[in-house]
Amino acid sequence: MRRLRACLGAAAAVTLAAAGTTALVASNASGATSALNNRWYAAAPYLMPLDNDPPDAAAIMDASGLKAFQLAFILAPNGGGCSPTWGGTASVSGDTAVQNVISTIRAKGGDVSVSIGGYGGTKLGQACADAAATAAAYQQVITKYGLRAIDFDLEEPEYENTAAVRNEIGAAKILQQNNPGLYVSVTTAGTADGTGWFGKQMLLEAKSQGFTPNNFSIMPFDGGFNGAASQTSALTNFNAILRSTFGWDEATAYAHEGFSGMNGRSDTGEYFSQADFQTVLDYATSHNMDRFTFWSLNRDRQCSPADNGGRTSGTCSSVAQNSWDFAKYSVKFAGATPPSTTPTPTPTPTPTPNSCKTAWSSGSVYTAGNEVSYNKHNWKAKWWTQNEVPGASEWGPWQDEGAC
Question: Which among 2, 147, 4 is positioned nearest to 70, based on CA atoms?
Answer without folding.
Answer: 147
